[in-house]
Design brief:
This is Long-chain acyl-CoA synthetase. Belongs to the ATP-dependent AMP-binding enzyme family. Keywords: Ligase. Its EC number is 6.2.1.3. The chain is of the alpha/beta class. Among the domains are: 154 residues, 3-Layer(aba) Sandwich (Rossmann fold); 102 residues, 2-Layer Sandwich (GMP Synthetase, Chain A, domain 3). It contains 17 helices and 27 strands. β6, α6 and β7 form a beta-alpha-beta unit. The longest helix is centred in the last third of the chain and has 18 residues. It is globular. The termini are far apart. The mean pLDDT is 91.
Length: 567
């Protein structure tokens, strides 16, 4: 058995090489941590503050109500919520009862939600009244028995809640499956924690996997505890720290880094239910977060904002960027902005994927290497291999990034073949997750990302599946064929472009481009919608008759390179 080298350990400083992970359920670990910080603020929501004591009390109330509906160990609840207290409370309450939380994007289409219900075997659902009709329709061809309906105003301060309910809340006609959230939490009976093995399934998050179609990533209590503790220790989180939960809870990055890791360290999370730049900047001015966590598009918005540039950022310890590649130009611009404002924090890159909860490596706070995404967290192993094999590459050679350690998923739900394809036992005796990402490691153990092996596109940290977008466009009566690629702008951030072949090319027009984009918006989540459309008389084909997307990618790359030189 070969020993995995860890040249990165010399950059750990005071961070231990290994952590002691409690062999308990995730909720039991969070509850024990909460006792240490009882009256400290756990989270804030639109001006309302909630202590750790209140967090636990609310989880216990919801768990009691949920059990009264018949929820038992092993049952699955789909949580279709933005980042708000009720979604977080439900996540931990389900875990307390020994259940499984399936985290679903609330802007998913009806058909997508139905797919997630059936993949996860959900019997229970939590959602907002504004999404109820869509969720209720999606539940008709599923095992869903109860739909718990909450309001976004539930946890707002009294005045905001009153204004929202009076002027903005819409009345929704509830069906026979519906149960009101506020009715459920009035049940007072205390419920004992379920007996849970730390290795049991706790949550399902959704990822493109390696084939470009949504997969249900099965994460255990152990996975979630380990990753949360690693992030907390890496950032040195404590009661003095505040993190903005800008990334949503249905995203591994948002759930684990911005919520779970915060609770592991006794810090506070500022819950942001919807991204509105002006409101976010006001929140940053008021709350003075010690850490910013986000994707490149967030930092680009900050750099471009005159109001953000006016903030004195001396309260910021660090800013981390993940879920997508951080352009070097964007990093330089943000770091300069912070420096000019009197701050010392740097924008640092990290790396992770849903199949390992989320972040598994990041740049050390005391050492920076340009272009690198950092080094592995405690207990996480990483190496570079010949793609699809266990043959390790030499230092500096490009290959597939593979990971091993406590963060690595149990597998893909109801997909043994794909699980066996990405989780492989190597000759060193360890099970390794083959990420499908190409990169290399330098002599110090710092890792560098090059490109994705598969065709999946990342937009603002979210997975976009070209086949799904193409299928929607091809369903339009005027479209003969379509091919979707990711294109980069000056900051190397990705957006979706569609090349469209019409049944009748004479009908090509700017008006039709707008029509196709609006058509896509009706069927796709917004990150998947094309931002740009180009009509082609014919799309390039491979020798076996498939649309050759690589030709289009190369043409686009050359075109944009030429445009840049001409500027």
């Amino acid at each position: 058995m070969n020993t995995v080298k860890k040249p990165w350990l010399k950059f750990y400083g005071n961070i231990p090489e290994s952590l002691d992970y409690p062999k308990k359920s995730l909720y039991q670990v969070v509850k024990e941590n909460a006792k240490k910080h009882g009256n400290s603020i756990a989270y804030k929501f639109l001006g309302a503050s909630y202590t750790y004591n209140q967090l636990i009390e609310n989880i216990e109330k919801f768990a009691s109500g949920l059990k009264s509906l018949g929820f038992k160990k092993g049952d699955t609840m789909s949580i279709i919520m933005p980042t708000c207290p009720e979604g977080i409370v439900a996540f931990y309450a389900v875990n307390k009862l020994g259940g499984i939380a399936s985290m679903v994007h609330p802007l998913s289409t009806e058909k997508e939600i139905e797919y997630y219900f059936n993949l996860s075997d959900s019997k229970y659902v939590l959602t907002l009244d504004m999404f109820y009709e869509k969720v209720e329709n999606a539940s008709k061809n599923s095992k869903v028995e109860k739909i718990i309906v909450s309001k976004i105003s539930n946890s707002m301060p009294f005045l905001k809640k009153s204004i929202y309910n009076l002027f903005m809340s819409k009345k929704v006609k509830l069906g026979e499956k519906a149960v009101k959230y506020n009715d459920l939490i009035n049940i007072k009976d205390y419920v004992e924690d379920a007996e849970v093995n730390t290795n049991e399934l706790a949550a399902i998050l959704y990822s493109g996997g390696t084939t470009g179609f949504p997969k249900g990533v099965m994460l255990s209590n152990y996975n979630l505890i380990a990753e949360g503790m690693q992030v907390s220790v890496w950032g040195g989180l404590n009661e003095e720290d505040t993190i903005l939960a800008i990334l949503p809870i249905f995203h591994g990055f948002g759930l684990s880094v911005c919520i779970n890791a915060v609770f592991m360290g006794g810090a506070r999370s500022i819950l942001i239910p919807k991204f509105e730049l002006n409101d976010l900047i006001k929140t940053i001015k008021k709350e003075k977060p010690t850490f910013l966590i986000g994707v490149p598009t967030l930092y680009k918005a900050f750099v471009d904002s005159e109001d953000f540039r006016k903030i004195k950022l001396d309260f910021l310890k660090a800013a981390f960027c993940g879920a997508d590649t951080l352009p070097e130009k964007l990093k330089r611009d943000f770091d300069l902005l912070v420096e000019k404002s009197g701050g010392k924090a740097k924008l640092l890159e990290g790396y992770g994927l849903t199949e390992a909860v989320t972040a598994v490596m990041a740049m050390p706070l005391n050492h920076y290497k340009p272009g690198s995404m950092g080094v592995p967290f405690p207990d996480m192993l990483a190496k570079i291999v010949e793609p699809g094999t266990d043959k390790e590459k030499e230092t500096g050679e490009i290959g597939e990034i593979v990971l091993s350690g406590p963060d690595v998923m149990l597998g893909y739900i109801k997909n043994k073949e794909e699980t066996e394809r990405v989780l492989k036992r190597h000759s060193d005796g360890l099970t390794w997750l083959h990420t499908g990402d190409l990169g290399y490691m330098d002599e110090d153990g710092f890792f560098y990302f090059k490109q994705r092996l598969k065709r999946m596109i990342k937009v603002s940290g979210y997975n976009v599946f070209p086949a799904e977008v193409e299928n929607v466009l091809i369903n339009h009566p005027l479209v003969k064929n379509a091919c979707v690629i990711g294109v980069e702008d000056d900051y190397q951030m990705t957006r979706v472009k569609a090349f469209v072949e019409l049944e009748d090319f004479s009908k090509a027009s700017d008006e039709l481009k707008k029509e196709l984009i609006e058509y896509a918006k009706k069927h796709l989540i917004k990150w998947s919608c094309p931002k740009e459309i180009e009509f082609r008389k014919e799309l390039p084909l491979t020798k076996i008759g498939k649309v050759d997307f690589k030709v289009l990618e190369q043409e686009e790359k050359e075109k944009r390179l030429k445009e840049k030189k001409e500027k």
